Amino acid sequence: MVLRLDHSSEDFASRFDAFLKTKREVSADVNADVAAIIDEVRRRGDEALHDLTLKFDRLDTRAAGLRVTEAEIAAAYEATDPKVIAALQLAHDRIASHHARQMPKDDFYEDALGVGLGSRWTAVEAVGLYVPGGTASYPSSVLMNAVPAKVAGVERIVMVVPAREGELNPAVLAAARIAGIDEIYRIGGAQAVAALAYGTETIEPVSKIVGPGNAWVAAAKRQVFGIVGIDMIAGPSEVLVIADGDNNPDWVAADLLAQAEHDTGAQSILVTDDAGFADAVVEAVERQLDTLSRSDTARRSWRDFGAVILVPDWDAAVPLANRIAAEHLEIATGDPEALADRIRNAGAIFLGRHTPEVIGDYVGGSNHVLPTARSARFSSGLSVLDYVKRTSVLKLGAEQLRQLAPAAITLAEAEGLTAHARSVGIRLNQGDTGGAGG
Amino acid sequence: MVLRLDHSSEDFASRFDAFLKTKREVSADVNADVAAIIDEVRRRGDEALHDLTLKFDRLDTRAAGLRVTEAEIAAAYEATDPKVIAALQLAHDRIASHHARQMPKDDFYEDALGVGLGSRWTAVEAVGLYVPGGTASYPSSVLMNAVPAKVAGVERIVMVVPAREGELNPAVLAAARIAGIDEIYRIGGAQAVAALAYGTETIEPVSKIVGPGNAWVAAAKRQVFGIVGIDMIAGPSEVLVIADGDNNPDWVAADLLAQAEHDTGAQSILVTDDAGFADAVVEAVERQLDTLSRSDTARRSWRDFGAVILVPDWDAAVPLANRIAAEHLEIATGDPEALADRIRNAGAIFLGRHTPEVIGDYVGGSNHVLPTARSARFSSGLSVLDYVKRTSVLKLGAEQLRQLAPAAITLAEAEGLTAHARSVGIRLNQGDTGGAGG
């Protein structure tokens, strides 16, 4: 039975608090194992990759080669259903044109004193993209991670993907080709993360590592953070649907199940002001569950983490939505924009009855890598900004230095930093360069 | 003796590689201690804070109160030298006006298909600012961390600062008041980070924690990451000065020492094309060292991690600078802009002979919280962007859904996600809402 909460019940506040605190993920402590693997890759390079890939993926990369060949990528592309290729291409083009609008602009100006200030954006030089193997190997995720990097101007994008017993998903390689990635290695796990961070004989290190992965991959990313940049550590997916009674319960049920089928730890929540509609959705979910290819996963997710919350009106819904801070928020009401304007914490908002979240997973153009586990309170979905960095620029002439020097010296002295004070003071009352040429 | 490297020597490449890999920080493994402290604060709340503060800071907060009172803040402001207040106010105003330009703009548009796409920026609701105690308690850092948060629109900024034996730096409280912070707690260490992340009876939790701290604070931030957002984990400070022979060696020496006096792990590097100038700077450093209030720290930093690198020309300097990816880069050459244009990796660049890095520490207007330890390859200095998050917005009507549905369904099926496919497919060939009202 799915959890049902009623805003008007006396114990709602405490039950909602408890619901928010539910842990949906038990991550095994693999830190020590991961540290050992990273250490081995640092010491033994390619040899470690060969050994670990043979052990974990039952693949002999000494024979197959670490790098996926151009011919293999081309063959995978040819082997992929042309309908899928066309859909990936459409997705690629829509993602690229939306993300192009995110490119931040440089800003240089002189202030009233004549001080030159600037912010200059440049792309990260090399990025590693982790792609999981097996059933979680999604071509759409390859596009979502790689396209913003290309748009940002990242010159080198390196993909790693484990090939259990040699198997690679052709659609993943096709997506990589569509995204313009040609440097792909058939390695996975913590060893792949270590190779990207530290480099081996075959693999040049990168500056940042992105992409989802299992507990080993997540732990490895945490451990190499600092040596390289990493993206967020993603948790199980979630959707919050705010819907009135004018919706078709089957549509809303389908949306809740689209989230639930991802993972037994996924979470689907309905908030509605219509008790009859809530009942109808719960029934529709039960009906649809039996017909899904991943019905076991969806059933467990819905049973363990699903929730249906009845509210008296949308005023009551807004603070709940902001506390849930859902990765995905669908608003299917008469005036979805009015409600959306009041939502502060959400990874992505899908407006109206014809915007199922799934469109955003594939072809909407916006990114499907979004903050999970309430982290939309403080973080954003993946974007071009994740692949660029800002350098600030400052320029003073002798006159500007004279104007700002006294305050700088005062603060340096107040902080007990006499060399700081001298670095400013020594430049006052002297020639233009203070040097032989001045 | 400071390390001297000559680009023209045969073993330069390997010596430069070794130099880049030098570890400047030995961080004690305090993870287990920190985990225990966090656990205690989560279980016992205020009581844990009282006990831990008595133990670590020898301060009885049961008597003094956890929160610094309004009267204490006002008294500290009054007790601070008016010259320092004026300098802090100038710094505040310059930081505020520069950072106001960083506020990202919302972007809503319809594409050619009529799909509505948007990016909406909102401020993080509550931010915790960690301020170290003792000699590292810098009022300038309070401004650098707090002002961008205010500019971003963060409603609640909570400061924590350890008060060893009750002592607080009045200038730090004055800076907080100038920045508009009135919620301040006299706690520090891992216990303060835990209180900010999880909350106690007295302290409401925040959504993000920023600010520098010792090994315990850094470990605690890593451990609570995910529950709240965190800023970068800062390492020891560093400066790279690229200077020609037309500079006054005393000026450049002063700049190198301003960095070195921060910390024995700080790093100061000179790159020059003039061997005689290099010698003159090394001599000037030795001469100035004796006159500093923190000469022991500066001497150790310069001896252990300082470097002087001779290059034949600036073409040779550019790739070195990009690999060093310095937190601070001063360019004191005839045409500093031309050289700066070729630098890709740097936290902040200071142009010309009259822009000592110290100006950027205090009153330049740009932020002094910058990426250390080569992380400028993939990250940026603190900015308004660290205090806002983006929600993406998508809106389709029935017609747009009809156009995008086939590709979305194709990709969902290719990924084996039948509930995804249904969530889109079920909305086709039906009325406007599919519901009773449709």
From TrEMBL, chains A, B:
Pathway: Amino-acid biosynthesis; L-histidine biosynthesis; L-histidine from 5-phospho-alpha-D-ribose 1-diphosphate: step 9/9
Cofactor note as given: Binds 1 zinc ion per subunit.
Signal peptide: none
Record-listed E.C. numbers: 1.1.1.23
Positions annotated as active site in the UniProt record: E327 (proton acceptor), H328 (proton acceptor)
Stated role: Catalyzes the sequential NAD-dependent oxidations of L-histidinol to L-histidinaldehyde and then to L-histidine.
Family: Belongs to the histidinol dehydrogenase family.
PANTHER family, sorted: HISTIDINE BIOSYNTHESIS TRIFUNCTIONAL PROTEIN (PTHR21256:SF2), HISTIDINOL DEHYDROGENASE HDH (PTHR21256)
Protein's name according to its UniProt entry: Histidinol dehydrogenase
Organism: Pseudohoeflea suaedae
Lineage: Bacteria, Pseudomonadati, Pseudomonadota, Alphaproteobacteria, Hyphomicrobiales
